[in-house]
Amino acid sequence: MHNKAFYPLAVVVALVLLVFAGAGCSRNASETGDSHTEVVKSFDPNVIEMDHPERFSLVEAEGRAVADEIHANGVVSPDVNRSVAVLSLGGGRVVDIKVKLGDDVKKGQLLLQIHSPDLAGAFSDYQKAQADELLSRKQLERSQGLYAHGAIAEKDLEAAQNAEDKAKVDVATAANRVHVLGGDPDHVSSILDVRAPISGTIVEQNVTSGTGVRSLDATPNLFTIADLSRVWVLCDLYEDAISQVHSGDTSDVRLNAYPDRVFSGRVSNIGRVLDPSTRTAKVRIELDNPGLSMRSGMFVTASFRSQKRFERPVLPTSAIVRLHDRNWVFRPLGGNKFQKAEVQIGSQMDDNLQQILSGVKIHDKVVANALQFSNASESK
């Protein structure tokens, strides 16, 4: 009897103990957080560990009062005040061209010849005026003789004198027209010589042999001659930098053709109208062109220095390394750890110091030789 009653009771007690044990295990697992928990370790690729950090000396960023340097792209252009369009006042057809685009010419040099009906007509008028004047002069001489013998009245003499005076005016006017067209009254010809009005370089040519030249108001300029001893540089300056550039400021101009040469000029004008597509204003720099080194159409880079000065950190150029088209420095984090930090650089100063626009503050310390440090870290 006692054994039969004991077995069901023992089974019930065992089940109760199993239930409480399962609840306790579930609670302990939830309290300790061991169930379904992952530990993730963070890794910064810009943090570098070096075995012997004492090998790399440090340098502190200094503060310097510097002026902002603004760079703008531009193009060399002839000085409009030193450029002259070559025109022909007489129409006709070009029969000979003596020069071509890019040639250097002297003032008075023959450029081209035109067979001109206008010049032929001017010579015709001049010869007719000469004939009329000759007749008027003979009539005046005859009238003077008759008047001396009392054969004619004084008013007839005055009329003859008036006719002679008018005839002389007609001759002078016809001769002047021949001169204006480029002819010589003493050498009758229908060939019009077009000569250079100034010395310089031919920067534009709109005529070829056989071209028909019409009247002055309907024909473009035959040539354009520019004196390139002094030129303009026209730059595109973005609107956020316009306030830092002023008329009269000096500018350094560098050309791709002469990377080792710096040409100095002065800002003479800042455009009042912005290009709506690029949001830039035209800035004109005037400068001398020694040896005619600068040619019209050359691309240049112009540098402007702001009149205001700002306190900015500077570092030796050796403390900055360029990797993957970016500039980097290495900051000590303590112990054997260093951090690679990107910096934005400004213009380089004369004493091998580099302006830092962002990424480093004054009194920050960085590795003095960034290239050496970079090579050592890559070799690990």
Explain what the structure shows.
The protein is of the alpha+beta class. It has three domains: 49-65 and 310-378, conserved putative lor/sdh protein from methanococcus maripaludis s2 fold (Beta Barrel), CATH 2.40.420.20; 72-80 and 227-307, Efflux pump adaptor protein, beta barrel domain (Elongation Factor Tu (Ef-tu), domain 3, Beta Barrel), CATH 2.40.30.170; 84-225, OB fold (Dihydrolipoamide Acetyltransferase, E2P) (Beta Barrel). Helix content is 26%, strand content 38%. The protein contains four helices and 21 strands. The chain has helices at residues 2-32, 117-148, 154-181, 370-378; strands at residues 47-49, 58-60, 62-78, 83-86, 92-97, 104-105, 110-115, 191-195, 200-205, 212-213, 223-226, 230-238, 250-255, 263-275, 280-288, 299-316, 321-323, 326-334, 337-348, 353-358, 365-367. The strands form four sheets. It has a six-stranded antiparallel barrel. Strands 4-11-9-6 form a four-stranded antiparallel β-sheet, with no helix packed on it. Strand 14 (263-275) and strand 15 form a beta hairpin. Helix 2 (117-148) packs antiparallel against helix 3 (154-181). The chain is rod-shaped, with a radius of gyration of 46 Å. It starts with a helix and ends with a helix.
Descriptors:
380 residues, conserved putative lor/sdh protein from methanococcus maripaludis s2 fold, 21 strands, alpha+beta, 3 domains, six-stranded antiparallel barrel, disordered N terminus, 4 helices, Elongation Factor Tu (Ef-tu), domain 3, four-stranded antiparallel beta sheet, OB fold (Dihydrolipoamide Acetyltransferase, E2P)
